[in-house]
Amino acid sequence: FTSGNHIKSLEGKTVLITAGPTYEALDPVRFIGNHSSGKMGFSLAEEASKRGARVILISGPSAQTTEDKNIELHKVTSAREMLNKVFEFYDHIDIGIASAAVADYAPKEVAKEKIKKNDENLTLELVKNPDILKTMGEKKTHQFLVGFALETQNEEENAKGKLEKKNLDMIVLNSLRDEGAGFKNDTNKIKILTQTGKKEFDLKSKDKVAIDILDFVEAQLLK
Ligand code: CTP
Ligand code: CA
What we know:
Elements: E1 14-19, E2 24-27, E3 30-32, H1 39-50, E4 54-59, E5 71-75, H2 79-89, E6 95-98, E7 105-107, E8 126-128, H3 132-138, E9 144-150, H4 155-165, E10 170-174, E11 187-188, E12 190-193, E13 198-200, E14 204-205, H5 206-221
Parallel strand pairs: 1-4, 1-6, 4-5, 6-9, 9-10
Antiparallel strand pairs: 2-3, 7-8, 10-12, 11-14, 12-13
Bound molecules: cytidine-5'-triphosphate and calcium ion.
């Protein structure tokens, strides 16, 4: 009985996971997006499924696939679509994990036709996207909420701030300092923060990181 081999330890629980980037349309052929691979979210979904959970995976555009028939995969494109999809399920989930790299801003207007390169300069007006996880936090009744944070400065302080501001139960801090960590890679180095404590983990594959995260969630749920 080793870590990660829990026998159906999440049986009876519903876990919702957001994953991947979001794409915010500029015109019919262009978007603003980011390099998130979606790997962390898919690894979490597969690990939660192994543990017997009902898994709802809401993913932005990503090359990731899963063979796991137990994972309910919902593909979305924009932050707004991701928000709407999350709230189709939100009341009925036990655990919500936000691993998506949601675009913070979207073009104010989506051009109906492809934008032509008529002018020397082009200024885009962007507007803030809805904060999906913060909205989940505001509407929390019984859900256990897990956020992610990617910081380049004052890492712990900023992550703790997000934990509080978004009404989370725990936050996973991704380290950018170490080679091989971060959101394009197959490996990750994390630190988990709660209201009362923190735990640091070694650099490892995202599949193993998913085991650490879900072990931590389960330990918190048993408290
Ligand atoms: N998140 C979200 N919806 C958004 C932005 C972020 O659900 N519109 C979630 C992410 O999935 C992550 C957490 O919020 O779990 C923190 O995301 P992050 O980008 O680190 O923080 P922001 O709140 O967007 O603040 P900033 O980018 O300014 O640091
Ligand atoms: Ca952000």
